Please model this.
Amino acid sequence: KSQEALDLLSSVADNDETSEDLQRKRAQALSQLNDPSAFEEWNQILEQSNHKELQYTALKQQADLLLSQDQPQEAIVHYQKATQYVTDPAEKRGLEHGLAQSYLDLARLGQDSENNTSEGISLLLTLKQSDDPEVSLQAILILGQHYLEQQDNDSALRIMEQVSAQDLGPAWDASLEELRAAVLINMGNTDLAIETLNGLAQRWPEEEEGHIPAWLALASIHRSIGEQNEAHRLAQKVSTNAKDPAYKEQALNFIKDLP
Model:
């Protein structure tokens, strides 16, 4: 995704047009790169555009950026503003995921009241029942991560019980299985975590969004249990085979930090 964002920025820079569409593409690329200037790019779009859908996109992107920067209270304000510009149910669900995550992040940062936590979990449990498998899985992932952070491993495993993301593609599958493995590690079940991640890598031998995250997670596990040679081998495998520069950089930093 980072490479896609860089390519998009390059294509925008090479284009002489100054259309609203090009400005949106530039802002989206900067958001994907988590560039500090992205927020202001979206502000300019909000000031200049009268298109309801673009105003929704700008506010949601700003909210997502604030959430990624541990500013959940400010994110909530932007998600709520974006509801004024919702034009279809899918947009509404996207905001609800963000709102729920923001409520739970308030708890993580110690800025929460019990009502906010309950509100976030209630929203997610509703989204989990969605007929759209991606909407449902995103809710499950947010809930599972919340339970993991609260050391509630049983609830985390229960929310993922009998859930598979293979039909949704490698990226979704990796997100689910990485979380499942993290919970298993937290419970002290290292062998099953390794088995889970090996299964993920084997399912997606040609798709790096599937096997690369598995190799990186496996490398981390082997490092944590003192198997430095295996950790190095897996990270080296990533740095050699990954096409996405972000994966390569992650692997090289991992190798640099090995004892």
